[in-house]
Amino acid sequence: MKLQQLRYIVEVANHRLNLSATAESLYTSQPGISKQVRMLEDELGVQIFERSGKHLTQITPIGRDVIKVAAEVLDKVATIKVMAKQHVHPEQGTLTIAATHLQARYILPALLKGFMTRFPKVAVTVMQGSAAQCRATVLAGVAHLLLVDDLQEGSDLLMIPCFQWQRGLVLPKEHPLAKAASLTPAELVEFALVTDGRGLSAAHGADCAHAESRIACSASDSDVLKTYVRQGMGIGVMATFAWEPQRDGDLLLKPVPWLPGAVAAIGLRRGAFLCGYLYDLIERLAPQLTREQVNQCCAARSGEELDALLANLTVPQR
């Protein structure tokens, strides 16, 4: 059994049994893949793929189990290579971060500037997308770190709270509500709202439900949201840390305590090897997370054990 054969069956499955596409992705020949797959099946004494002539038609039940384990083996081999490389060159490598717009646009820039000064030989890539897209990227092993706006339950990733954040209202300086000392849901009923895709609050009953009916549109991109506010489309509801006084001086930000905030979270693939410089970035994102604490979370054997560790973790406000 060879690693090359394991790689072939995994890639054949990934390419939906298309041998031509598999051969192209691996820079090899279709007959070569077919031969190696046959040799592996002969050695194991089981059929991994069912065939019709020269075409693969489906994966057998035992084949699915073999391919799953083969993928895990290849992942461990890749980890060993990274570990060895990190041991020889601890401050060199690559780092891919999958982040939502809010995090990629407003949180990462200043942090990455310091990180890249500290680790000039680490090539950093930021992959921006929706929370679901970012999670899938980390789960697939394409990205090393997830950074999302909300700490969500039930994720296949190891999710660790990073920081708390609040939302506020952004409006033109000449808006009728600009001089109001404080705002309630009832006061928003007369005005159209542009939100970040999140609800307002369930804590204010009918008033808040009525205010939600005034939502004109949603824009998960805060830069787009502020543009809509400038166009007079409504009052914006967004994260307060997305407010930039120098850029947004024509607008006014009003903190609103009753608006629900969230807890931004870091996500890691369970069992993945963490490079030394990744711990550094995590601590820049969440100073309360030391290397030891991250390792303890990674080593947690159950959800209950992880919850106990996180219960003692102070999550700062940003």
Could you name the key traits of this structure?
5-stranded mixed beta sheet, 13 helices, single chain, DNA-binding, Arc Repressor Mutant, subunit A, transcription regulation, D-Maltodextrin-Binding Protein, domain 2, WH_DNA-bd_sf, WH-like_DNA-bd_sf, transcription, elongated, 318 residues, alpha/beta
Protein model, in words:
With 318 residues, this protein is α/β, with parallel strands linked by helices. It has three domains: 3-86, Arc Repressor Mutant, subunit A (Orthogonal Bundle), CATH 1.10.10.10; 90-165 and 262-310, 3-Layer(aba) Sandwich (D-Maltodextrin-Binding Protein, domain 2); 167-255, D-Maltodextrin-Binding Protein, domain 2. The protein contains 13 helices and twelve strands. The protein has helices spanning 3-14, 19-26, 30-44, 61-88, 101-106, 108-118, 131-139, 185-188, 205-212, 222-230, 276-285, 291-299, 303-311, and strands at 49-52, 55-59, 93-99, 122-128, 145-148, 158-165, 167-172, 193-195, 215-218, 235-239, 251-255, 262-268. The strands form three sheets. Strands 4-3-5-12-6 form a five-stranded mixed beta sheet, with helices on both faces. It has a five-stranded mixed beta sheet with strand order 9-8-10-7-11, with helices on one face. Strands 1-2 form a two-stranded antiparallel ribbon. Helix 1 packs across helix 2 (19-26), helix 2 (19-26) packs across helix 3 and helix 6 runs antiparallel to helix 11. It comes from Aeromonas sobria.
